[in-house]
Structure formats: C-alpha cells, structure tokens
Design brief:
By secondary structure, the protein is of the alpha/beta class. About 35% of the residues lie in helices and about 20% in strands.
Length: about 400
C-alpha cells in the first residue's frame, strides 16, 4: 500500500469547494430514517470543513435504484436530518451533475452545505464512467473521500473521480485504513481474532490471511457450526454451508503450520426455534431438532481467558442470534469483557462490520472499544489483504 494523500489541519481550504463523498446509505422506512449512525459518523469531517470556511458539497448513494430515479430513495430527508445535527440549513439539490449544480456550488457561502441527489440515480456511477466522474468533479475544487465503507467498489464517485480533481482521504477513512494496516502488520502481540458470520466461503480469505499473522482465532456463530459438524458432532437444524470440508481441513492445517491457535465452542445454547427459550448443551448432547443460537458458558469462559492474555483483539461477527434476548448473552459478555480489558489493561480492541457494531451498541459498550468500524465489505477485504479501488485511487507517488 502506497502513501495516501490525506486531509490535515495545515491545508488552507478557505473559500474552496470541498466535494465530500460520504456514505449516507442509511436504513429508511417510508422516507423516514430509522438508524442514524452513518450520518453521525461523518459529523466531525463536516464540522472540520465548516471551521475551515470551505464550501461543502456532499455526495452519497442510498440503496440500489439501478440507475433510475426512485422517489423512495431520495436523499432529501437526509438533508433535513443533517440540518438538525449541525444547526444550519442544508440545501438539497435534486440532481448531482449539470451546469445548475456547478453554479450553485460556486455561489455557496463559505461554511455552508449543499447535499446533492442520490448518485445511483445515474447508471454511470456504478459503471465507474469517466464522463460522469469528470462532470461530478466540476462540483468541487478538491475532493475528499470519507466513505471507507464504499471504497471496495470501483464506482465513479470513489474511484474514477480522483483522476480529475485534487483528492484526499478524509480523517476517518485514513484512520480506518491505518488501523487495519496496523492489525495485519505490526499489532501488539498476542493478537486474537474473534470471527463469526454465517458463511465460511465469505471468511476464507480473511482466515487464510490472518492465520499467518496472528496468535489466536476464535471461531463463533454460524461459522463455527461448519467446524462442529466437521468434528463429527450433530448440529441439528442449525445453518451451515455445505461441501466445505476441504476448506475446513485446509484452515486447520494452515493454523498448525503457522502456530495459530484455533478455538471453537465447547458448549452452546440451543432451541427448537428462534422465539423459544434457550437451553445449554455440550456438543455431544445436541439432537436433530436443535438449533444452535448462541455460545455456552464454558465457551464464554474460554474466550475470557484468551482475551485476558491478548494485547490486541479484533472482533468481526457476533457469536449468536443477538437480536433475540434469549440468545444475546454471548455477544453482550464478549463486548463487556473486551471493554473492561480495553479500559483496565490497555487492550487495543477493534471491531468491524454492521452486525458486530449493532451487538456492541446493544451491550452499551460503544465507548469501550479502541475502534469500531461500521464498514462491512471494505473492512473485510482490507483484512484479506486486497487492494481497494477507492483507497488505491488516493495513493500518491510523492
């Protein structure tokens, strides 16, 4: 990874049009925003640009309109929500390119904000079109990417645009990239990764990359079901991915070669369905009608011991169906233990992915982690060691 051109305090951008790419892809219901963390996350960069007296032109996508204007996916309600956060009126424009937009961006007073319409209403955005990127770049004098969660996509507003305008990584994006770089190159050892999720195929690249670099991998959630089944136990009606025995054998073999300690659940919470009460069972007691929905007490104790000897912990993927109270204990206890050690033992704790961030929020531990990334795909691809188009396009040869 080359040196990334990033925004810093010394940059004089007074009176300049800052074209700011953010991720306002928030959940909505009938036009009203149901969860606002992605808006809150970019408030620091917006406030920084206001303080610097820049003219702020914000661009984002929302949903998958597939290049058509879908009224239910307009960014208009976000302009209203954003106005309430920063105590100034955010002007919304119903297009994202065109001479009228360029004119309005130039007329904008210093420290004021324009929000442009959903980029994905134009099919050229997802095609990484040069023409569209050029037009978009005319709305600013400098471009800032503060949308790490979109940077694994080769789309015009994160990739091609950087060829046509002086471009910078936003503070949060720069921090996020550096945290993951640290995690995979010079993290304080011992390093432990707690990894969940439902499909082994989506995590195979990460596991293969991390096994070479870290000390312990704790496998939880539906991901662990594959390993439990592979070891000859019944997993009842629990979800797992079929025909993955060779992958599992490879992971186990690689972990042995690289002296990476693989840890699996030794007991679980099962139920007959998602709404019944849970029952604690050892692996050899799982029957054909059981659904594994959380990790058990002995497994939690084992994870505590590993967290206690770790200097760095990465958590990606909850250990259970945390949305239901009966199966949230594993997630809550892990979040609280990591928080406690971060505060008392200077543990470096990093969490990534939307579900993990939601589980931590539910546990009341959001302030207790060193860093929480809400990015899913981009976070995981960088962990895998892949080059992200949006990050690569910000690299400089200076």
């Amino acid at each position: 990874m080359g040196k990334i051109n990033h925004l810093d305090e010394s940059l004089n951008i007074e009176g300049k049009r800052a074209l700011l790419r953010v991720d306002f892809n928030v959940p909505t219901n009938n036009g009203s925003i149901t969860e606002t963390s992605r808006i809150e996350k970019v408030l620091p960069i917006i406030k920084f640009l206001i303080k610097k007296k820049a003219k702020i032109i914000i661009i984002s996508h929302l949903g998958r309109p597939k290049g058509k204007v879908v009224p239910g996916l307009t960014l208009k309600p976000i302009a209203k929500k954003l106005s309430s956060y920063i105590n100034q009126n955010v002007t919304f424009l119903d297009k994202c390119i065109g001479s009228n937009i360029i004119e309005k961006s130039k007329e904008l007073p210093n420290g004021k904000i324009l929000l442009l319409e959903n980029l994905r209403f134009c099919k050229e955005e997802e095609l990484n079109s040069e023409t569209f990127a050029k037009e978009l770049s005319k709305n600013g004098d400098i471009y800032i990417n503060e949308a790490f969660s979109c940077s694994h996509r080769a789309h015009a507003s994160v990739c091609e645009i950087t060829k046509h305008i002086k471009s910078y990584a936003g503070k949060m994006l720069f921090e996020e990239v550096n945290i993951i770089k640290m995690l995979t190159s010079n993290a304080k050892k011992p390093v432990t990764c707690i990894i969940g999720g439902s499909k082994i195929s989506t995590k195979i690249g990460i596991l293969t990359n991390l096994i070479k670099k870290i000390d312990n991998i704790v496998i939880v959630g539906a991901l662990a079901n594959n390993f439990i089944k592979h070891r000859g136990y019944s997993i009842g009606k629990s979800i797992f991915e079929e025909n993955k025995d060779n992958l599992i054998t490879d992971i186990i073999k690689h972990s042995e070669i690289n002296n990476c300690n693989l840890i699996f659940p030794v007991d679980v919470i099962v139920s007959k369905n998602h709404s019944s009460k849970g029952q604690l069972k050892n692996l050899n007691k799982i029957d054909n009608t059981d659904l594994i929905l959380d990790i058990g007490e002995k497994t939690i104790e084992n994870i505590y011991k590993i967290i206690d000897v770790s200097k760095t912990v990465l958590w990606n993927g909850p250990p259970g169906y945390f949305e239901a109270k009966n199966f949230s204990a594993g997630s809550i206890k892990i979040a609280k233990k990591i928080t406690e050690n971060t505060k008392n033992k200077s543990l470096i704790s990093i969490a990534g992915g939307g579900d993990t961030a939601a589980a931590i929020k539910m546990s009341g531990c959001t302030e207790g982690f060193t860093y929480i990334s809400t990015a899913g795909g981009a976070f995981l691809e960088l962990l895998e060691g892949k080059a992200l188009p949006g990050i690569k396009s910000l690299e400089t040869n200076e």
